[in-house]
Design brief:
The chain is an alpha+beta fold and 343 residues long. The chain has 11 helices and 10 strands. It has helices spanning 14-23, 68-81, 117-131, 137-140, 152-167, 174-201, 245-254, 265-273, 279-301, 307-316, 322-338, and strands at residues 31-35, 42-47, 52-57, 90-94, 99-103, 107-109, 213-215, 224-227, 232-234, 241-243. Strand 1 and strand 2 form a beta hairpin. Helix 5 (152-167) runs antiparallel to helix 6 (174-201) and helix 9 (279-301) runs antiparallel to helix 11. The longest helix has 28 residues, at 174-201. The protein is globular and about 65 Å long.
C-alpha cells in the first residue's frame, strides 16, 4: 500500500499522487521519502519499484499570486523538449491541487567547495543554451519571471518595495523592532545611494526588447546538483521566465547560500552573453545593480519577519521556532550587508 509521511492536514491526499502516477501509466504500490532543503514547497521522492520520481507540492497563498507550479513545469518542459538538458524531465501536474511529478535527479547538493571557475562557466553555458532558443514559439509561451524588471526604475522600485515591507512590520517585540531599524537605517540608505548614482548619470538606459532573456531566476549553486556523471543539474524554476539578463547575473553573484567570487563575474558574463550586441549595456547595468541586489537579498534572508514569508517557511519545514529563525536571519542579513565585496 502507498505510504504517507504526513497527516491529511499537512500533506496532499494519496489519491492525488496516484492520479499523477496513473496519468503516466504507473500503478501502486509506491513509497514516499521526504526530500529536505526546500524553503517554499514540499518535495518527496516517489519509488514505484522500477522507477523513481520527484513529487512536489507547491506553496499557495491568497496573498501570493505567483503560479509556482506553472512557472517551473513550463520551464522544465521548454528545456526538456528542446533538448537543452540539465533540468528534470516533467511528467505530470495537477494545477488544481498545485502538485507536479518530475524526474528524480540522482545527485548531491552543491557545496561551497564545488564553486570553481569551471563550474561557474558550466552554469553560464546553461543560461547561454537556454537563450539560443529564445526566438522559438515555445519560448514565447513562457511568462515573465517573478519580479521581472526591464528598466533601472523597475529594479529600484522592486527592491524599495521589499525594504518598505520590512520597515512596516508591526514592532510587537524587540526582534521586530531591530528588524525595522535595520530596514530603515541600513537597507533604505543603500537603496538611496543607488538612486543618487542613477540620478546623477541617467545611465544606463532602459532594457531593449532584444535583450529580454529567458532566466532560471534564483539562479545559483544553491539550486544545483552534481549528478553521478559529475555534471551540474539545475533545479527550482518556480520564479523562471523572461527577464533582464543583468538581474540574473546580479542574483547569481549576490545569492548568499553558496557564494560565488565576484572576481569571476566578467568570465561568467562572457560565457553567458558574450557576443551579444547589448552585452556592454548589460554590464553597465550590473555595475549599478550589484549593490542594490545585495539589499534585495538581505530582504529575502529576512522573509521570516513577513507574514507571507513565515507561512511559506512553516509550510515547507518544521525545524526551529519562529523566534529562533528570526534571530538567525537578522544576524545573517546584518553580516551579509556588512561584508559586501566591491566589483
Amino acid at each position: 500500500m502507498p505510504t504517507k509521511l504526513h497527516s491529511s492536514d499537512t500533506m496532499v491526499a494519496t489519491s492525488s499522487i496516484l492520479h499523477l502516477l496513473g496519468s503516466i501509466g504507473e500503478a501502486e504500490p509506491f513509497t514516499l521519502t521526504e526530500v529536505q532543503g526546500g524553503f517554499n514547497n514540499r518535495a518527496f521522492r516517489v519509488d514505484t519499484g522500477e522507477m523513481r520520481y520527484l513529487f512536489k507540492e507547491y506553496f499557495r497563498d491568497g496573498q501570493d499570486s505567483r503560479d509556482r507550479l506553472g512557472a517551473e513545469y513550463g520551464f522544465c518542459k521548454f528545456a526538456s523538449t528542446l533538448g537543452i538538458g540539465g533540468v528534470a524531465m516533467p511528467y505530470a501536474c495537477d494545477t488544481d491541487e498545485g502538485i507536479g511529478l518530475y524526474e528524480f535527479i540522482e545527485g548531491v547538493d552543491c557545496r561551497p567547495e564545488d564553486v570553481t571557475l569551471q563550474r561557474v562557466l558550466e552554469a553560464a553555458n546553461f543560461y547561454k543554451r537556454l537563450n539560443e532558443h529564445r526566438d522559438c514559439p515555445a519560448a514565447k509561451e513562457l511568462g515573465k519571471a517573478s519580479e521581472a524588471c526591464f528598466s533601472i526604475e523597475e529594479h529600484l522600485r522592486c527592491v524599495s518595495q521589499r525594504v518598505a515591507r520590512l520597515a512596516a512590520i508591526p514592532k510587537d517585540n524587540p526582534l521586530d523592532k531591530m528588524a525595522v531599524s535595520f530596514a530603515q537605517e541600513s537597507l533604505a540608505i543603500r537603496v538611496r545611494e543607488v538612486e543618487e548614482v542613477y540620478g546623477r548619470t541617467g545611465l544606463p538606459g532602459p532594457v531593449g526588447t532584444d535583450e529580454y532573456s529567458l532566466s532560471p531566476s534564483d539562479f545559483g549553486f544553491h539550486n544545483m546538483l552534481v549528478d553521478h556523471g559529475g555534471s551540474l543539474r539545475f533545479v527550482d524554476f518556480e520564479y523562471a521566465g523572461w527577464d533582464d539578463p543583468a538581474k540574473m547575473v546580479a542574483d547569481f553573484f549576490c545569492q548568499p547560500r553558496i557564494p560565488v567570487p565576484v572576481g569571476w563575474m566578467d568570465a561568467f558574463m562572457e560565457e553567458a552573453i558574450g557576443g551579444q550586441p547589448w552585452a556592454d549595456g548589460a554590464m553597465q547595468r550590473i555595475q549599478l545593480l550589484y549593490p542594490l541586489y545585495r539589499v534585495k537579498w538581505c530582504c529575502i534572508i529576512m522573509n521570516e519577519f513577513l507574514p507571507e514569508g513565515n507561512r511559506r517557511r512553516a509550510f515547507s519545514t518544521t525545524q526551529a521556532t519562529l523566534e529562533e529563525r528570526k534571530l538567525a536571519k537578522l544576524e545573517a542579513a546584518e553580516t551579509y550587508l556588512t561584508n559586501t565585496p566591491e566589483l
